[in-house]
């Protein structure tokens, strides 16, 4: 606790006020975090957004709310999004992510839902993931 009565919590090497929330806007996620990750400059914030293989974790066990992940592809060049207990299914259309002034498209996003079980008889769950990518590059190499 600081002299002024403010309590702090440690996140990696950073001290933050208790109750601090990391809630970047979509444009901030794309322009700062994802773009810097693609440029190899993620060391600046690696203690804030970690990189994991999302398919190695069930949704309830994911270590963070924001993360970087890449996917494996099968022999048919399809993205594999399966975990031990289920799979992530793309739902709906791809959506454009625009700058705050709505003038430029800076990325696209997909919404995925987690299905418990296998493809033939999956059970719907409440888990949802927003996957962001920059379409000028390979969309499977830069998800967030």
UniProtKB/TrEMBL annotation:
Pfam families: NAM
Highest taxon in the source lineage: Eukaryota
Entries under PROSITE patterns matching the protein: NAC
Entry keyword set: DNA-binding, Nucleus, Transcription, Transcription regulation
InterPro entries, sorted: NAC-dom, NAC_dom_sf
Compartments, record wording: Nucleus
Gene3D superfamilies in the cross-refs: NAC domain
Principal cellular location given in the protein's record: nucleus
CC annotations in GO: nucleus
Domain NAC, first and last residues per copy: 16-144
GO-annotated biological processes: regulation of DNA-templated transcription
MF (Gene Ontology): DNA binding
Listed SUPFAM superfamilies: NAC domain (SSF101941)
Name the record gives this protein: NAC domain-containing protein
